[in-house]
Amino acid sequence: MSDQRPATGWAKTRSAASIGALLAVLTAASYATVNALLRSVAADVDPFAGSLIRQLPLLVLATTALLVLRPPALRPRSPEFIGARFVGLLMAAGVISFLVGNVFLFTGLNWVGLAVATAASQGGIVLGSALVSAVVLREPPTRSQLIGIGIVAIGLATIAIPGFTSIQIDGFAVLGFVLSMCAGVCYMLSNAASRTVQRRPRTFITALALTNLGGVIALLVAVLIRSGGRLGEVYSALSPHQILILLLAGTVNAVALASVTLAVRYTTVTSVSALGSLVIVFGIFVAWIVFHEQIAVAVIVGAAIIILGVLITLRPPATPAGMPVEPVLDADSATIPGADAYTSMKEGTT
């Protein structure tokens, strides 16, 4: 019987990782769809106002789920209550992701352009996830993941090459590149916070809803400040077509956010982030098929390199025979390795 137990543990680990990988691919495809939908309206809509509208479908869905399900994770008298600290962590993650990350990315877009800023932000997600997973979550990337991440980074740099040739390399360009990478780190931190909280069972809806709520509040405050409190004027300037596109993009965006939140329950932030880089590949495919754009050779080569890197990160680590493997997460009750250490770090006790 003892010979069967390690195999069972390994099978659970691979099963959970496979579910997480599929959800991460769905996330990348959904974000690519969102980007395609926004192409027709992005230039004429305030980026923060547009971001706020895109969060509304998820806000409605998540709030409805909370009211109907009344999850024990948010009931202070329940033994499953996650606590005020984790409530604050999730809402802060929403602020960092939806507001701070967007501020960094929008600034980077202005200073280095779309191609460079997008590649740099994705690089921040991938590289930042490896560091945070190892240092904070105590889930160090495997050797295959480190090699794959390095290859993905090379692919992203290759895609950005045509963009570099069209900008003047000066202090603003360097700062724009750095800020774009920081934007990616901000987006990744939201996933890390979600994975930390989801070490407890039945916390998916709670993690998704609170992160969304924190982001919506931050975006609303940002829009109010930018408009001088004239919120009505900001949205009255939008046409029905623009609002419809933004809401449609928000619906697909809700699928993306739900998928990535659930993905980090089943597999590591490193894996999800590496797979998330496929959004670049899907975006290139959409640009070619839907918008009939001419794709530069460097971009095609970069996309191929990214796919290679992702495939390498998916390679399972070798496990000595007879050595038990702790499942990453199963569907009901598993803990994230190092989550308690993360909590202690947040409390300043380690």
TrEMBL record:
One Pfam family name is EamA
Q: Keyword Magnesium: yes or no?
A: no
Q: What are the record keywords, sorted? A: Membrane, Transmembrane, Transmembrane helix
Task: Note the topology in the membrane.
Answer: Multi-pass membrane protein
Transmembrane spans:
48-69, 81-105, 111-137, 146-165, 171-192, 204-225, 245-264, 271-289, 295-314
| Compartments (UniProt record) | Membrane
Database matches in Gene3D superfamilies: 1.10.3730.20
According to the entry, every stretch annotated as the EamA domain falls at 19-159, 176-314
**Database matches in SUPFAM superfamilies:** Multidrug resistance efflux transporter EmrE
Q: Which InterPro entries match?
A: AA-Vitamin_Transporters (IPR050638), EamA_dom (IPR000620), EmrE-like (IPR037185)
Query: Which family does the UniProt entry place this protein in?
Result: Belongs to the EamA transporter family.
Protein's name according to its UniProt entry: EamA domain-containing protein
Native source organism of the sequence: Leifsonella bigeumensis
